[in-house]
Design goal:
Elements lengths: L2 E3 L3 H25 L13 H26 L7 H8 L1 H5 L14 H23 L11 H31 L3 H7 L1 E3 H7 L1 H7 L4
Antiparallel strand pairs: 1-2
Helix pairs in contact: 1-2, 2-5, 5-6, 8-9
Bound molecules: protoporphyrin IX containing FE.
Length: 205
């Protein structure tokens, strides 16, 4: 079965570093969110270390995400077929792939999630800066700091739920995780899940 390159080495290192930092930022952030989740702070060595490290991890994740963004944004522009794919989400869930419009390099759901990731990452870093004590918070009024805390929590929840869907979908479509891990997918995988992309790279054959 012939193999097709889907991700370069730098794409993969970039992606998995963002994923690792996301897990650490999410776990430490959830520990601050509610006392019942405080036990999660032990992952980064306790409450104080988590409080110190969380913002630095968040900034590192954001910077690496920006690189990922510039590598992938042009693959995630929503076209008419993607909007139709999203409207037929019932057929997607019921695995009626034959009824769906042709999918390119990414499907409508992946593209939508990409923009959710982008917006929430931006909101997280901006709001996080506004209430990062002792560095930046003193430059903002208490009302701004309070608003920033709410924006931060809401964006974090949206991103966490989005990533749960992202991981679930990656596990659901067999061969996808392997693609991001090894950089290559089988031509059968590409033809079945991303036929538009397959045609594009195989010159319409
Ligand atoms: C936490 C565990 C994660 C896993 C297991 C995972 C898995 C994957 C897999 C398998 C793909 C390949 C999809 C395909 O080729 O069709 C992918 C793509 C991608 N992932 Fe992740 N991912 C994770 C976290 C993240 C995080 C935290 C972000 C950013 C916030 C992210 C951003 C992306 C992007 C931008 C792509 C390319 C797809 C696109 O441009 O639409 N991933 N991921």
């Amino acid at each position: 079965m012939s193999k097709i390159v889907r991700y370069s080495g730098s794409d993969r290192v970039n992606h998995w570093l963002v994923a690792l930092l996301f897990v650490l930022a999410a776990i430490s952030g959830l520990a601050f969110f509610h006392p019942s989740l405080f036990f999660l702070s032990s992952v980064l060595g306790g409450g104080q270390l988590s409080r110190i490290l969380h913002p630095f991890i968040g900034v590192a994740m954001f910077v690496l995400f920006v690189i990922l963004y510039f590598k992938f944004w042009h693959h995630n522009i929503l076209h008419k077929n993607d909007r139709q794919w999203l409207k037929q989400i019932g057929d997607v869930i019921a695995d009626r792939e034959d009824r769906l419009p042709e999918v390119g390099r990414y499907n409508g759901g992946q593209k939508l999630l990409f923009w959710v990731m982008t917006i929430t990452m931006l909101l997280l870093v901006l709001s996080g800066m506004a209430f990062w004590r002792p560095y930046f918070a003193s430059n903002f009024s208490i009302d701004t700091v309070r608003l920033a805390a709410v924006v931060h929590a809401v964006s974090a929840w949206v991103l966490i739920l989005g990533i749960i869907v992202h991981v679930y979908a990656a596990l659901w479509v067999k061969g996808t995780i392997k693609g991001m891990w090894t950089g290559v997918v089988s031509s059968a995988w590409a033809r079945k899940h991303h036929p538009g992309w397959f045609k594009e790279i195989s010159g319409g054959k």
